[in-house]
Specification:
Elements lengths: L2 E2 L4 E8 L5 E8 L3 E6 L5 E9 L4 E5 L2 E3 L6 H13 L2 E12 L8 E11 L11 E7 H10 L5 H13 L3
Parallel strand pairs: 4-9
Antiparallel strand pairs: 1-2, 2-3, 4-7, 5-6, 5-10, 8-9
Length: 167
């Protein structure tokens, strides 16, 4: 163990390649996370504008959050949706699971579709700087195409749904 923080830890591991050679690697261990595709009944999607300190930019993203210890991903999705957008959902459907950055990070992302949405108050965590941004589906896809959306989980969520589920 090289570092242990509140949400992740960094470990040095030894990789043995097929030729028997050993290579030290640093790996970030993460408990996993969810991202939610909130679709309103009128073919709009709720994105968020989220200031990300790591890249010093405000990004358009799908709402998301880290799993708490022993928390079911569907419970995390329901909680994070309400906290970050104010929307409550009648229906959550798991669409996919994927690794965000498997070259250095073991974080597994669980993608959920949220429908039957009802507006309510947001409940942001201390230090969160985000605002909901509701956009027509066609605009969200255009934002993905023209580079206004640069967040990987958001691109995966929008394009996965468009390619495999919508229509």
């Amino acid at each position: 163990m090289l570092y242990a923080g509140r949400r992740f830890r960094v470990e040095r591991v030894v990789q043995i390649t097929p030729d028997g050679a050993q290579h030290e690697r640093e790996v970030i261990r993460h408990p996993g996370a969810v991202t939610i595709l909130p679709l309103l009944d009128d073919d709009r999607v709720c994105l968020i504008r989220n200031h990300r300190v790591a890249v010093e930019q405000t990004l358009f993203e799908l709402p998301a959050g880290t799993l708490e210890p022993d928390e079911d991903p569907i419970d995390t999705a329901r909680r994070e949706l309400a906290e970050e957008t104010g929307y409550r959902t009648e229906a959550l459907e798991k669409l996919a699971e994927f690794f965000t950055t498997p070259g250095v990070l073991d974080e597994q992302m669980h993608l959920f579709l949220a429908t039957g949405l009802t507006a309510g108050p947001m409940d942001l965590e201390p230090g969160e700087d985000l605002k909901p941004h509701v956009a027509p589906w066609s605009e969200a896809l255009e934002m993905a195409r023209d580079g206004r959306i640069r967040d990987g989980k958001t691109l995966v969520g929008l394009l996965f749904y468009e390619a495999f589920r919508r229509g």
